[in-house]
């Protein structure tokens, strides 16, 4: 066992940290998608971190552990968490399924556009009646010659209003349940697609979240990912990526919040003492450290297992659960340590709790992660 990062990995981490710190001051309209920031992240190489350069000049071909470390740096640097989240949804739930399951022609056509950030993708699986349980998707795809006709509505699609492509999942054979679902790349300019207004939500505000409607959208068969019937497997693989890599961003955000707490506790005085000398405050910060380090090690283990191509369902679910729940607690603690200042926008620390609450829902809720863990423990 070796807990050390090599020099190349550390220098990539430092680069991500300083790049993200520089983006911290970039301002944009609240709730709007910051295209300039997106482009800067494209220039950094965010959207092609694990993609081989054979498929795109923006691909870095990093292994998953190094990818995780770079994402930690981006999260810690303080660039807008909403756009980092949007980038992770694009990269890990869209670019990676194309990279791992697309035909050679589709990979060559789309990966250069998507890894540079010139084009944006959105993952569309959730439906009104299929959130945690996606066994029965009401969206259907029926074959007509060389085309599929897609019909249905997706309820929560990150990047929906800015997407050039959707990775959408539809039922091709209802008799087979999970094995009757198929994954499609759907160009967003095809006739019959309508995107709802962006939802107003609690956090991650620059990431757009929309309903998407497919009304008899005619998609060529070359846009099928993998084979017909492999949709559920492809989605599960994309969640493996997302649950590791997206949540690495939040490890970085928690590290930043912890550092801010230490700095503030050592500076802020009540009476003649800094508040760090009050055990209630210092123990709260010690607990933040324990939760962060535990979640971080679970993430590294899950990513390491993924790189070994063994069944890592339990490790990934454990890591996702630990990170998102630690993120919520850390978001509360950073406000408590900063007192009233923490509650104010000008204190600069009240956004984490708003971003963190979403993290216990997307990529499978905390309850669903517990179900996955129980399943692997032989309890279900
Ligand atoms: C910010 C954000 C971004 C999102 N982005 C996307 C996206 O890009 N693409 C996409 O397709 N979806 C996206 N989603 C949707 C997300 O994946 C779903 O919200 C999530 O899967 C839960 O589904 P639901 O909201 O329908 O809740 P439900 O499934 O209705 O769950 C409601 C409650 O019941 C619990 N529950 C449900 N079933 C079980 C069970 N079997 N065992 C135990 N507890 C259970 C849940 O844990 C939860 O507490 C996003 C959601 C959010 C909040």
Structural summary, described in words:
It is a single chain. With 380 residues, the protein is α+β, with helices and mostly antiparallel strands. It has three domains: 7-120, Butyryl-Coa Dehydrogenase, subunit A, domain 1, CATH 1.10.540; 122-231, Butyryl-CoA Dehydrogenase, subunit A, domain 2; 232-377, Butyryl-CoA Dehydrogenase, subunit A, domain 3. Helices cover 51% and strands 15% of the residues. The chain has helices at 7-23, 35-44, 64-77, 81-101, 104-116, 231-267, 279-307, 313-343, 351-359, 366-376; strands at residues 121-124, 140-144, 147-158, 165-171, 181-187, 193-195, 209-220, 224-225, 269-270, 273-274. The strands form three sheets. The chain has a four-stranded mixed sheet. The structure holds flavin-adenine dinucleotide. Flavin-adenine dinucleotide binds at residues 89, 123-126, 131-133, 156-158, 204, 209, 358, 361-362, 364-365, 367-368, 371. Residues 229-377 form the Acyl-CoA dehydrogenase/oxidase C-terminal domain. Its cofactor is FAD. Residues 123-217 form the Acyl-CoA oxidase/dehydrogenase middle domain.
Largest sheet: 4 strands, mixed
Ligands in the model, by name, code or SMILES, are: flavin-adenine dinucleotide
- CATH topology of the largest domain, by name, is Butyryl-CoA Dehydrogenase, subunit A, domain 3
Helix coverage percent of residues? 40-55%
How many structurally independent domains? 3
What is the N-to-C order of secondary-structure elements (H for helix, E for strand)? HHHHHEEEEEEEEHEEHHHH
Uncertain stretches of 5 or more adjacent residues: none
Total DSSP E strands: 10
The main sheet orders its strands as 1-4-5-8
Radius of gyration: 21 Å
Proportion of residues in extended strands: 5-15%
**Which structural class best describes the helix and strand composition?**
alpha+beta
CATH class of the largest domain: Mainly Alpha
Q: How many distinct helices?
A: 10
- Looking at CATH, the homologous superfamily of the largest domain is Butyryl-CoA Dehydrogenase, subunit A, domain 3
Q: Please state the overall shape, judged from the principal axes of the Cα atoms.
A: globular
State the separation between the terminal residues, measured CA to CA: 32 Å
Mean pLDDT: 97
């Amino acid at each position: 066992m070796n807990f050390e990062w090599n020099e190349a990995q550390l220098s990539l981490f430092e680069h991500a940290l300083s790049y993200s710190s520089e983006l911290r001051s970039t301002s944009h309209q609240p709730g709007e998608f910051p295209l300039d920031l997106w482009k800067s992240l494209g220039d950094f190489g965010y959207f092609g971190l694990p993609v081989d350069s054979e498929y795109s000049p923006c691909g870095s071909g990093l292994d998953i552990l190094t990818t995780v470390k770079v994402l930690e740096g981006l999260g810690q640097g303080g660039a807008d968490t909403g756009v980092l989240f949007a980038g992770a949804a694009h990269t890990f739930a869209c670019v990676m399924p194309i990279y791992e399951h697309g035909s050679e022609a589709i990979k060559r056509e789309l990966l250069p556009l998507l890894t540079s950030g010139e084009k944006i993708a959105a993952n569309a699986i959730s439906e009104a009646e299929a959130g945690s349980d996606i066994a029965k998707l009401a969206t259907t795809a029926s074959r007509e010659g060389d085309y599929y006709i897609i019909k249905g509505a997706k309820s929560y699609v990150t990047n929906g209003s800015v997407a050039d492509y959707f990775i959408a999942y539809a039922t091709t054979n209802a008799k087979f349940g999970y094995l009757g679902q198929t994954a499609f790349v759907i160009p967003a300019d095809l006739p019959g697609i309508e995107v709802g207004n962006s939802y107003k939500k609690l956090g991650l505000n620059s990431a757009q979240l929309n309903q998407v409607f497919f009304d008899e959208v005619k998609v060529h068969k070359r846009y099928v990912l993998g084979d017909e019937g492999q949709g559920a497997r492809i989605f599960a693989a994309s969640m493996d990526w997302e649950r590791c890599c997206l949540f690495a961003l939040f490890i970085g955000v928690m590290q930043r919040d912890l550092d801010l707490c230490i700095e503030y506790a050592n500076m802020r005085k009540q009476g003649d003492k800094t508040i760090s000398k009050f055990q209630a405050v210092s123990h709260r910060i010690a607990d933040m450290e324990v939760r962060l380090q535990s979640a971080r090690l679970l993430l590294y283990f899950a990513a390491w297992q993924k790189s070994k191509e063994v069944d890592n369902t339990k490790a990934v679910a454990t890591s996702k659960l630990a990170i998102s729940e630690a993120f919520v607690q850390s978001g509360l603690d950073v406000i408590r340590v900063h007192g009233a200042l923490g509650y104010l926008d000008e204190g600069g620390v009240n956004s984490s709790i708003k971003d963190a609450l979403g993290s216990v829902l997307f990529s499978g809720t905390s309850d669903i992660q517990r179900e996955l863990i129980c399943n692997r423990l032989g309890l279900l």
